[in-house]
C-alpha cells in the first residue's frame, strides 16, 4: 500500500470505530472503557475509490519509564512516523480537553502532516466542540460520525491532497458511495471454498494461553518490535494482523489475545478479546499453537488444540522457551506421547521447539507452517482414492450387517480441500460403525501423507453420482 493513514488521539474518542468504518468490517474491539486498544492494528481501507492502509493506535497518554502506557505510546509514535498522514481524532461532544491540546502540540512537531477530525458530530451535541477545535491551530477540523458513517466525503476530500502526494491516482469511474457499516452477518463470509491464490498472503494466526510468548514470537518473525510485549499477562487484546514476506512469500501474521479457561473469564473486555481470537482462528489458514516448555500440553492447551481442529484449520505446535528446558529428550517424548493419545484428530502434527526471545527454531517453524498449508490445500484424484479404497476394503472389510449381510462401500471422492474433506458412498450409511470410519480416516492420513491436518469424512447413501462420469 503506497498510502498510509494513522488514526491517533487520546483514549476513548472513537479511533477504533473509525478504523472499523474505513476497513468496512468490525475488526477492532470497540468498548466504552478507555484504553482497550494497546497495539497498533493495520487494515486495508477504501474511501470513495481510494485504497489505502489505515492504522488504529493506542490512545495517547503521557507516561514514561517501562510502563505499559509508555510501550503503547512508543507504538503510536512509530505509527505516526511511518504514516503519510495522521488523523488526530477528538470527541466533539466532550469538547477539547487539555490532553487533546497537549498531543496536538506533540504532533505539530512531527514531520507527518496531521488532519484534525472531530468525531461524534451527529446531531447538534457536537457543535460546540467542533467550533472549539479551531482553537487547536491545526486548520479546519473535519466533522464526522464514525459510528453513523457521516462526514466520510469530507474526510475523503481532506485526505486527497496527501494521497496524491503519495502517488495515488484516483480513477473517477471507480468512485463508489462509501459502504454502509456492516452487520455481524457480513463478517461471516466463508473463504474455504476458494482455490488458493499464489498472490494472496498465507494467513498465519498465533494462539495460546496468556504469557507464553506469542507477541515475542511475532516480533521475532517480523524482525522488529511491532507488537506490544512485556512480563504482564494479557497485554494483547485485539487480534493484530501484520503483512510481511517470508522467503519471497506474502504472509499475514495475526497475533491474538491469550485464551484462558472459560471459567476464569469475568472481565467484559477479556470476553471481547477471546471472541476476537476465536474469530481469527475461524478465518485462519494455519494456526501456530504456542505453548510454554514448562507446561507442555496442559488442559487448556488441549482445549485450544481441539478447537483449532474442530474449525478445520492447519496446525503447527510451537514449544517456546525451549532453551531453558533441562532435559529436552524427556520433554519432547512427553509431548509426542500427549499428542498421540490426546489429539488423534491431528495425528502427525508438526511440532517445532523454539525460543522466541533469541530466535532459535524460527526458520524451522516457518518451514512447518508452509508444509502444513500445502497439506491443508491438497487435492487427491478420484481414481487414486478408489484404488486405495479397494485395497483397504480387501485388507480389512467393514463388519457385516445384522443377519450376516455384507456392508457395501461403493465409492469415495474428495469434495473439497481446506481441510481435506471426503464423501464415502455406501449402503445404509447410518449403520457403518464409527470405529470403521476412524480406520478409514487414519488410512487416508497415512496413504496420502495428510499428517497434522483435520480430515473430514462423510458417509453418504444412495446412488453413486459419479458412476456415469468415470473415475
UniProtKB/TrEMBL annotation:
One Gene Ontology term of the molecular function aspect: GTP binding
Gene3D superfamilies: 3.30.300.20, P-loop containing nucleotide triphosphate hydrolases
EngA-type G domain: residues covered: 3-167, 202-377
Biological source species: Magnetospirillum fulvum (Rhodospirillum fulvum)
Annotated region described as Disordered, given as residue ranges: 175-200
Name of this protein: GTPase Der
Residues that hold GTP 1 according to the record: 9-16, 56-60, 119-122
Pfam families: KH_dom-like, MMR_HSR1
Keywords for the protein's UniProt record, in alphabetical order: GTP-binding, Nucleotide-binding, Repeat, Ribosome biogenesis
Family the UniProt entry places it in: Belongs to the TRAFAC class TrmE-Era-EngA-EngB-Septin-like GTPase superfamily. EngA (Der) GTPase family.
Biased segments, Acidic residues type: 175-196
Quaternary structure and interacting proteins, as annotated: Associates with the 50S ribosomal subunit.
Keyword field contains Magnesium: no
Swiss-Prot/TrEMBL GO biological process terms: ribosome biogenesis
